[in-house]
Amino acid sequence: MKTNAKNWQKVKLGELAELIPGFAFKSGDFSAMGTPVIKIRNIASGALTLENLEYFAGDIKGLDKYKINKGDILVSMTGSHVSQWSSVVGKITRNNKDQVFLMNQRVGKIKPNLAKVDNNFLYYSLHNDVTTLNLANRASGSANQANISPEIIKSLEIIIPELDEQKNIASIISAFDDRIEVNTKTVKTLEEMAQGIFKEWFVSKQGKEYSLLDIADFINGGAFGRIINKNRKGLPLIKIAELNRGITENSEWVDKEVASKYMIQDGCLLFSWSGSVGIYIWDKGPGILNQHIFNVIPKIGFSLGFLYFLLKDKVRIFRHTAGAKATTMGHIKKEHLRDESIFIPEGRDLNLFNVFYKQIINLKLENQKLAALRDLLLPKLMKGEIRV
Q: Among 74, 127, 173, 246, which has the highest number of CB atoms less than 10 A from its own CB?
């Protein structure tokens, strides 16, 4: 079947690629060291995450089929139905890390026939909400445990041009992703440099002592209840899920006026203090802060940059505190902030950390613009509306 674009054809995925399901590791196979294993939870959001990794310490000879190399395309074959979008079955991602992993069961690897389809073009064809909804709607099982079969995945239809044009399209989109990756690595380097300086300057208890409450205000988000909507009206409500994944189809919105203290912008320093304790630089535009997250505001004489690296230095303490006091869900209280202090010697230029902070924000915002432009061009290129 021909499309509107000359020489573009609609074909089934199974004609272009092999689907390789993951290996059925047993629970006793995992340890604290070895080769990292990618499970459903590491790809269920549609992005490869390395949180809560488990490792296989055994001999990996004979497991080559289940290795995940850089660039490999992955699909979640188990998850929830579309009502719980963040972990829905049928999410497509790829390994963009310079690292080899092993693939657990119910994770699938889509291995293309490179004589027919370019790997990057195939990824960009599949990594979208339409594909995920198609797979999720055909999944079987309960709402929280939906499953998709290899046959259904291979029956997906995609539209492709000739191989040379596939490669040209993929190279254009990849240029955006490559720049985003460079910026992300630069952010990591800047953070490591600043954290190294921070540890060197403040390793000893010398100088004037400050409690965290002496140097910053911690403004908690609000509880908005009935004024929340899912119609994308107003501003997005920023919960812990948005801190980790950004604004998604599952995000809630507020279209009523709220107190200014709950409004956040790019560059705000946020501290999630309940359940999942973490420190974040917000870079997704205007929003309204939900409860269980502090907006950290520096007091006179201090800066966001200094506070960011200070809180990053102490986040392990906060996580331990929250875990130790947890009954159902651990959390941090203002008294814990009062109990944590820092000694600041004379002669330290604390503004140096704000220089790092501003550079990090600028790179993050550039990535947002690059991603938006990429996402604008992608569907037009993939449909042949823009020819290369």
A: 74
> 182-367, superfamily in CATH?
DNA methylase specificity domains (3.90.220.20)
Total Cβ atoms within 10 A of residue 214: 14
Q: What pLDDT score does 326 carry?
A: 47
- Give me the mean pLDDT over the 232-250 stretch: 90
pLDDT in tens, 111-149: 999 999 999 999 999 998 889 888 988 988 876 788 999
Spatial CB neighbours of 302, under 8 Å, sequence gap ≥ 6: 215, 216, 350
387 or 154: which leads in pLDDT: 154
Tell me how far apart the alpha carbons of residues 325 and 350 are, in angstroms, rounded to a whole number: 33
Q: How far is CA 136 from each of CA 41, 89, 124, 146, 237, rounded to the nearest angstrom?
A: 16, 6, 18, 8, 26
- Indicate the burial class of 197 (C-beta count within 10 angstroms; 0-12, 13-18, 19 or more): middle
The yes-or-no verdict on residue 92 having pLDDT over 90 is yes
